[in-house]
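README: folding subset

This subset contains proteins for which both the sequence and a predicted structure token string are available. Records are stored as plain text. Below is the entry for Sulfate ABC transporter ATP-binding protein (350 residues), shown exactly as it appears on disk.
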Amino acid sequence: MSIEVVNITKSYKNFTALHNVSLQIPEGELVALLGPSGSGKTTLLRLIAGLEQPEEGAILFHGEDNTNRDVRERQGGVVFQHYALFRHMTIFDNIAFGLAVRNRKTRPTKQEIKERVHSLLRLVQLDGLAHRYPSQLSGGQRQRVALARALAVEPKFLLLDEPFGALDTKVRQELRRWLRHLHEKLGLTILFVTHDQEEAMELADQVVVMNEGRVEQVGSPEEIYNHPANPFVYSFLGRVNLFRGRVRDGKVRLGEAEFDTEWENLRGGEWPAVGYMRPHDVEIALAAQDSKFVQAQIQHISLLGPIIRLDLKRLDTGELFEAELTRQRFCELDLQEKSTVFVKLNNLAF
Ligand code: ADP
Ligand code: MG
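--- output ---
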């Protein structure tokens, strides 16, 4: 089912949690809502689920207005970070719950429920555990039960709010891979909330970057990483260096270097300008090769394995930044702490 969020505004008392948010989720896509804590991700998910009502705007499923429908009518499956399973019920009964509580007309037979639950247990790779209780499972297994329970009622879409947030790194990585396979198998529309950029990049077809109740950018992982729309997205998606300079007569001056810009309107005066470069895009040289460089001193060398990280200090401004080199490049340059190097600025983004 496709989901469309149209100009949603949502406030709690006098605090606006979402400002005029719009979003389109095509049928069958796995979409990540990515943003720091407090950016409005959970609020947006709850609005789509029907657990909250917006003051303004609409939510459409397959083009049909669902803004005033209640949770049940929307037929979505929801899994939260701490989705408490029923502790006094077996795994079987937990998964069967949504089917067993249906009214007589729509309730499957006992045999049908049994078959459905066992096929779900196979799907989430927990067959054989039907008669255990939640306390007898690991955290990762419990979240898979929560997913099976959400899937039991054949939802039209799935909403997952940091479903792996409480688990340790290794289990999270396994569950990510597992969720991706599950999505491929089911072809269900899934909206997935995370504050972890790596998780979003690894899992999603599309990433929606949120900040302070607004959508900053929507794009594929590749687009948002390589073509961030603004400084917030740039710095939220990974380590980034800032190179400060000045704009004068339509040119940015940064150390000895000069860059042409399209900022024709900035003629006749001087303004600060900031260039961005990811550490792995920083190129180190032992001599100046053209005019676009700054000189820097190596403060510290960290051997991270296949990658070497340099902490550098600009000689002109004293600003600190980082470079990441392959081990091979590092050895070729024969770099030492305290030595002075040239840093190319050709791939600086403004
Ligand atoms: P996220 O999931 O991205 O961390 P939330 O959607 O939970 O963000 O919250 C967004 C903002 O709205 C936060 O500043 C939060 O404090 C506020 N907020 C969320 N729920 C409520 C509520 N029920 N009452 C008042 N403020 C709330
Ligand atoms: Mg949240």
